[in-house]
Amino acid sequence: MKLVSDWRECWRWFSTQAMALAGAIQGAWVLLPDDMKASIAPSIVSGITLTLLVFGIVGRLVDQK
Fold first, then answer.
1. Nearest to 26 by CA among 15, 37, 13
2. Sign of the four-CA dihedral 32, 36, 41, 44
3. Cα 58 from chain centre
4. How many whole angstroms separate alpha carbon 23 and alpha carbon 34?
5. How far is residue 45's CA from residue 5's CA, in Å, rounded to a whole number?
6. Does any domain span residue 1?
7. I need a surface site. Which of 25, 36, 63, 64 has the fewest CB within 10 A?
8. How confident is residue 54, by pLDDT bands cut at 50, 70 and 90?
9. CA separation for the pair 60, 55 (Å, rounded)
């Protein structure tokens, strides 16, 4: 496995930001108390997470200078 040449700049990439945000949403969802989870449909959280992951994949395909 070989790293990309500009791996030190990965925090600037939209793909990295989108995937980190998707992970943060899922982490926050796990930590939410059940009474707060009841006010948000799980399908909404899953949909947002999946959308961000798709954006992350698309972001890897686009030149991000």
1. 37
2. negative
3. 12
4. 19
5. 34
6. no
7. 63
8. very high
9. 9
Burial class (CB in 10 A: 0-12, 13-18, 19+), 60: middle
**Tens digits of residue pLDDT in 1-14:** 888 888 898 899 99
pTM: 0.83
Max distance between CA atoms of the chain, in angstroms, equals: 46
DSSP of the chain: ----TTGGGGGG-HHHHHHHHHHHHHHHHHHS-HHHHTTS-HHHHHHHHHHHHHHHHHHHHS---
Domain containing residue 19? 7-61
Cβ-Cβ contacts under 8 Å for 37 (sequence gap 6 or more): 29
How many domains are contained in the chain?
1
